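Think of the structure tokens as a kind of shorthand, similar to the way a musician reads notation: each symbol stands for something richer, in this case the local conformation of the backbone. In the example below we present two proteins back to back. Begin with the first one, reading the sequence and then the tokens, and try to describe in your own words what changes along the chain.
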Amino acid sequence: MKILLFTRVPESIGRVSVKQEAEKRGHQIDYVDIHTVGVDHTSMAALVDSVKEYDIFHCAAGLGDVVLERLHELLNNSHVFCVNNRTKVASEPGSKLSQALRFGAEDVSTPKTVRSDRPDYSELKKVFGDTFIAKKPYGAKGKEVWLINNQDDLAKIADSGEWLFQEYIESDGDYRIHVVGMKTPFCAYRRMNPPDDFRSNISQGGSAKAITNAEEEGEVNALAVKAAQAMGFDYCAVDIIRSKADGRFYVLEINMDPGFLHVEDITGKSFAKVIVDYYESVSQTQ
């Protein structure tokens, strides 16, 4: 089996471990740095020809919805299996607005959300109360997300362009669930925010630990699978929060290109083995 991965950092520990696992099983896996990908007609045609030499194509980095959708369109009639094929998933899958709309349509529990390009604190307060979350439609690792408590907070960050505002749900951190094959959660863990930050992203100073309560893990896994299926993602990570007020679980967002650097340390499960298992399973269906 031949596998092609687009990535930002081919030499990262995670990518190296996947390559080692694949090669140990007799597969070939090659990496392409997304910063070298051309989008003119000649470059795209050459890229498609080169991808067709592989059995699995996985863009594990942000190439852009439009570019990747076009690339997947050109590969649809080939033998190549495209992970998270952009022609088969929800439109603009990287947009948190698109995700919120899709979750609403598929009855996936999410926080109340408002879109605005001219946010007004007094109007938003009528919807959410004094405190709420502001975020840009695109962003990762807890960036482009703010806690708004008053007009001054909003004035500091609100610029022209599109914004999403969500109800603030008080919790003890959140849960991250990695889902493979649109149906199998291969690991789930809790992330706790640092004392001075409402965000629990590890990249923002949060900590994490494995979930030890089987009932709790079962609930978040089921909700994560429902979210993955709503978006049509083969592989993703789903972020879920549990309300202190009523104990309900809500999906915050879903990431189709999740980082997995800390997964093995937290859960003891090997991402490399799971993802190569998945590549093997889908290659048999082609």
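Once you have a description of the first chain, move to the second and do the same.
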Amino acid sequence: MISRSNYVAITLIMCVVLLMFQLTGISENVLMNTGENIYAQEAVPEELEKTEQQRYEEQTESLLLAEGTEACVGLAGPKTDACLTAGRNWCIAQKREYCRYDSLADAAADEDGAGFLITDGTKLGAEDVETLELLSAQGRHVVISGLPEPEVLDESPELRNCLGILEIVEDEITVDGFRLFAGLVMGGETVYEDYEQEMPYARLGSSVTAYAVAWSEEDSFQELENEELPAIIWRYAPDEGRRYIVNGDYLNGQLAAGILTGFAADCEEVSVYPVVNAQVSVVENYPVLADENGDVMEREYGQSSSLVFRDILWPSIVTVYYDTDDAMTVTGALRLDYDEDTKLDESLLQYYYEQITKMSGEMGLSGYQVSDVPLEEKLEQDLEVYEQVIPDYTILTFQAGGLEEEEYEDLVGEGNLLEDVNTVLKDYDGQGEEPFFSYLENGVLQLPIYMDSRVMNNDDDFRSRCLQTAYGYFGTALDTSKVIYPDSEDDVWNIISNDWSKNYRPFRVPFECFEKTTASEADRRVRNYLALEYETELTERVDRTGDAAGAGNAAAGGADGTENADGTGNAAVAGDAGSTGTGGERSLKLHVDAPDGDSYFVLRVHGEEVTAVSGGSYEEIEDGWYLLTVTDETAEVTLDQINHADYYIE
């Protein structure tokens, strides 16, 4: 029998639970009735926005040094070399000081100059052998983008040896794909079976570490050991300084940031660099409120386009977002054909606003259309509908897609048609010369969308690994306009949604540590990331007997003759860096000046592990890689040396 006191306690608990549920429903209804963008109050204040942009621009200018220092990066060669443009953008992103040299010879003559050099390898000749050897003897590392012509290598055994090449087996071969070993970029080892490319067949010498080797289904390839396969990316360390060689054009575009990050981390005991920590998932051109392309809609779905978007697409979209726990950003087009004066179902806009807000999502505007009316006129029509239906909604995000910058730069930002927009989502340009993130002149920030949510081919996966390694940022989008105006028979929703749900999760598992955000949330993090400044301080190791020990070069282990992927020796697998000494703890201090709250860093260590963080927190991404969240002006990371024998990355 229940006592009176227990009965009263149970009744009170039930009342409290009921009240909580009621209050949740009431708060949701209150929020729905406001018609406001829940992220408007969280947007960067105007004054801070200007401060952050100014800090970034001043910082960008100050990173270029008139003279090189050991800690800076040296760009050796003409400014127009694509790999040097990519190198400059990488330096700006990671806050690394850099200098320029007209040639490698000039860099070698500057004995106390840049300790990490980047140059175009396609221009190397026999006359550069002495320079490369001198740089290694000086303890300076050189990144070589591309190989010289095969005939140049054939005629100069000294140059081949200088690059760690035993022989050029064939001047040009076509391979199906490549094997990427663990350690260069995040994500672990993988084989890309469908990444066709042409390259010289370079067979490496015995004292070389391979990061990537060619792969093919041909029997002749399957019979070869790793060290005999055509090499794509490798490290050769004949002296104190290391050479990182890339057989191909991987360093000529945006992918270079991830590969250079891996190289730099390999030649440092402890490498730490800032990242954004944001994953943005966008549904483009959703919702559409007009009934368009009726014949196709009737044939494929038996309904009008507005009903297809509401009754078929929306439930599937919600399911994917619930399943992946992504933050929703949609960029509506309202109509796609502005030449046709089709009636809009404006009540649907209210419906979508309530549904998206309920999911803590964000609505923006898209610049896409299948007609050819001026962009300003199209946007004016869209805004008129928003002002009639949800007049208090603040549009913060504009989807530029494939539009050229000059088409929209005078339409977004303060004083323009879309005056509240502070974020532009633009299509990714893999070979672009501009930095990965960029500002318009009026302070509007541009974020790249570099993945198609329904496609994940081998090149997509490699791109994702490189860019998330470098920036801790993921931008993906699904274009729903294809449902109404299909380009192929695969542009029907059952195939699109199947591709989307199939590809969404598996390829993102290695990067689940990065937070899922709306476009506006990512905007604030990117601005803070671009403007922050930091310094690091690494203490000496104290071994477990209490005696101070030199830090040593933890990254140096495994440079020569260590095991490859199958444990056979010769060409070593990347990530085999080890450490010396008897073990013990040391600390890394981060002094951070971030204008807008928390900041994020990736820490790369060799033969060590993070055991504690004060002034922030940490999360292990994978062996040797950590995500640091810094909440105070100074954070201290405690590192403990682990058994080198246990540290080979499989």
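Compare your description with these statements about the second chain. The domain at 65-267 is CATH 3.40.50.880 (Rossmann fold).
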